[in-house]
Amino acid sequence: MPLDDLVLGVQRVFDRLVRRLRLGPPPAPGRRRLLIVQIDGLSRAVLEEAMARGRAPFLARLLRHRGYHMAPMSVGLPTSTPAFQLAAMYGVRPDIPGFHYHDKRRKTDVYFPRGGDAAHVESTQAAGRRGIVTGGGTYGCVFTGGAASNLLTFAMIKRPTGAGLIRTASKLVVIGWVLVKGSVASTVEVVRALLRMVADPLSPASGSWKWLAIKLAISVWLRELFTLAVAHDLYAGVPTIYVNYLDYDVAGHAWGPRHRRALQALRRVDASIHRLWRVLRRVPEHGYDLYVLSDHGQAASLPYLRLTGGRRIEQSLFEDFFAADTAAVTDAREREGRRLVSVLEALRAQRAPGFFQRFVNYLEQDFPWVLGGMRGAREHDGIRVIAAGPNAFVYFLEMPEALALEQIEERHPGLAKRISASPGIGIVLVRSASGPLCFWRGAPYGLDALAAGPFAGRADLERIVEGIRDLMSMRSAGDLVIYGIDAREGNVSFVAEVGAHAGPSADELHTFLIHPSRVTVPAPITHPIQLYPHFASYQSDAA
Ligand SMILES: [Zn+2]
């Protein structure tokens, strides 16, 4: 793309100026630099299928003709971005049981998209460790990894750093270009969608509007912004860069991990990596090593709501198992959410025009936090339930520490057994005096007996046992950890999605690390914590 090159050329001149004015000399040559590209949510199985079908042509070429290897990687439990990134970036075993959970000791929920939550987890759990992105830049990550420059990284969304601001200012040319390009691309998408609606006015339009919104927000703008910003960093010789492309994961949640639209998103990410590769070839003197990896895969799943005719898992648990009175909703955030719901109901009562109403419905269902609500949390009578994905947590709030099975049995006899036998439930994990137990279809299995029950026939049984042991030793994991993965009905998610992750299915657990074949990476990679010393060695090169 020659126009991109022209813009980046202008940017380089601008940068040299900024560096002379503000940032001092360029980084010293003679050391290896690190570029990590994460394709969020892509299992090894889907990548291999996609490469075989020509849906990831650049990655296929990288492996076949460019001297790169693909190492298999198991990512541990939960199969979730924040747990992966904390382990890989800092080399610590995270206390992050899911994307949304409760911390009984601090009496608060942790919900990663919410401003401040990621920053708090990073500052407490990675305290005193040197992150692998120290002195570099992160894009679209959950944590900073120590980077001074962060763009749309959860931990820094509301708290950009000084150096980050100077760098952002120096990226103005690139950002301006992204705005121009993004506007053109957005206009094209809107016109296309309108044409589709004109051509087929009776089609269920909500689906295509939803897809349009996802495409506009993530596929066009973010991917473009990330790719150009990273290209800019590569020309500037930024020592370490960690960029996370979210497109595939978002499309997978909405349409399923093997859906045509998810594979289209992957195809576009593949093209972006190709563009970064071309930049790398122009700056061999910077000595970048490129790694492409994924933090977890996804399992095709069925929304729990569809099985139950609209009853959420929180409701089912309280009504069928805890028998609490349904009036005593105590959480203030939920009250706030209800206030917003009533605003929405008022809007609905006024018969908002179809398009606007569809948009509001869509926001309410899929992005409640945009409206200030918090999805999937409910509390009655000292019990808090959080639905985070294909996983849900039950917390008995009376004690700040986790309750073991023996204590839960005193309060609710047969609870784990009964829940595990109910519709839409796969396994229920609980701590006990003899170690973690896994209830499946109404029967308990110790970790040494998993092959006789829920995980019969799995060649990666060892990884599952380790994963469950790690998960249930996290202090913030629920007193009950409930998975919809491997329910009788198939894989079930407790939020409205048809691609899900956090659980132990083979596609969720097994990803890949693509690396230059002349570097030696740990083998086998059974947990992302093993990536830390490898990536951190690029830091010590600097010393
Ligand atoms: Zn995801």
Task: Give short descriptive properties of this protein.
alpha/beta, 7-stranded mixed β-sheet, 543 residues, binds zinc ion, 19 helices, 7-stranded antiparallel β-sheet, elongated
* Spatial extent as radius of gyration: 24 Å
Average predicted confidence as pLDDT: 82
Number of helices: 19
Helix content: 40-55%
Q: Strands of the biggest beta sheet: in what spatial order?
A: 2-20-8-1-7-5-6
Query: Uncertain spans, ≥5 residues at pLDDT below 50?
Result: 21-25, 158-162, 197-206, 324-333, 346-366, 368-373
Bound molecules: zinc ion
Beta strands, count: 20
Instruction: Assess the beta-strand content as a share of residues.
Output: 15-25%
Global outline: elongated
Structural class: alpha/beta
Question: Overview of this structure, please?
Answer:
The chain is an alpha/beta fold and 543 residues long. It is 45% helix and 16% strand. It has helices spanning 2-23, 44-52, 57-65, 81-90, 117-125, 162-170, 172-199, 205-236, 247-255, 260-282, 304-307, 313-322, 332-349, 354-366, 405-411, 415-420, 461-472, 506-509, 531-540; strands at residues 33-39, 68-74, 100-103, 108-111, 137-139, 149-151, 240-245, 288-293, 299-300, 302-303, 377-380, 383-387, 391-396, 427-430, 437-440, 443-446, 480-483, 492-493, 499-500, 510-516. Strand 3 and strand 4 (108-111) form a beta hairpin. The chain is elongated and about 70 Å long. The two termini are 37 Å apart. Residues 21-25, 158-162, 197-206, 324-333, 346-366 and 368-373 have low confidence and may be disordered. Bound molecules: zinc ion. Zinc ion binds at residues 41, 249, 253, 501.
